[in-house]
Amino acid sequence: MRSITGQSVVPISERPRERDFFHSLSLSLSRSLSLALSRSLPLFTHSTYVYLSIYLSIYLSIYIFLYIYLYIYLIYSCLSIYISMSFYLCLSIYLSIYLFHFIYVYLSINQSIYLFHFNHVYLSIYFTLLMFIYLSIYLSIYLSIYLSIYFTLLMFIYLPIYLFHFTHVYLSIYLSIYLSIYLSI
Predict the structure, then answer these.
(1) How far does Cα 66 stand from its chain's mean position?
(2) Are the CB atoms for 159 and 69 separated by under 8 Å?
C-alpha cells in the first residue's frame, strides 16, 4: 500500500506488537503513579501544612520580636536623649552660675571699685553666658550620644534574652501548634 507521496505505508494490523506493549506499559505505569499520588495526597498535604505552619510561626515570631525590639529601642533612645539633654542643661546652668560667682569674686578682689562696677560685672556676665551656651550645647549633645550608645549596648546585651524567651520561643511554639491544628482541619 502506498501513500500520496509514493512511500509505502504499513497497516496498523501488520505493525509489530512491541509498540503496543510499550504503549500499554507506559499507560499502566502512569495510571499506577497517579493512583499512588492520589492515595498519598492527604498525607502529603498534611505534612505540607505542618511544615508551612512551623515556617510561618517562626517567621511571625521573628517579625514580632524585631518589631518589639525596634519599638523599645526607639523609646529608650528618645528617653536617653531627653534625659541627657535635661541633665546637662541643668548641669550647664549650675556651672554657669558657679563660673559667674568665681569670676565675680575674682575680679572684685583684684581690681578697683570703678572697674568692678563698670567692667567686671559685664565681663563676668559675658563669660557666664558664653560658658552657658557652650556647656548647654556641647555637653548635652555629647552626653546624649554617650547615653544612646550606652542604652544601645545595654539593649543588645540584656533585652534580647528576655524577648527571645518570651517572644521567640513561646510564640513560635504556640503558633506552630495552633496553625498546624488549624490547617490540618
Answers:
(1) 4
(2) yes
Task: Dig out the grid coordinates for 14 from the structure.
Answer: 501488520
Q: Do residues 167 and 57 make contact, with C-beta atoms less than 8 angstroms apart?
A: no
Among residues 179, 178, 163, the alpha carbon closest in space to that of 63 is found at 163
Burial of 122 (0-12, 13-18, 19+ CB in 10 A): exposed
- The chain-wide mean pLDDT, for the chain, equals 62
The alpha carbon of residue 118 and the mean position of all alpha carbons in its chain are separated, in whole angstroms, by 61
Whether this prediction's pTM lies above 0.85 is answered by: no
Residue 33 in any domain: the answer is no
Q: What is the dihedral of CA 141, 146, 148, 152, to 10 degrees?
A: 160
Specify if 105 maps to a domain. yes
Q: How far is CA 6 from CA 1, 3, 12, 13, 130, in A?
A: 9, 5, 18, 21, 112
Q: How many domains, in total, are found in the chain?
A: 1
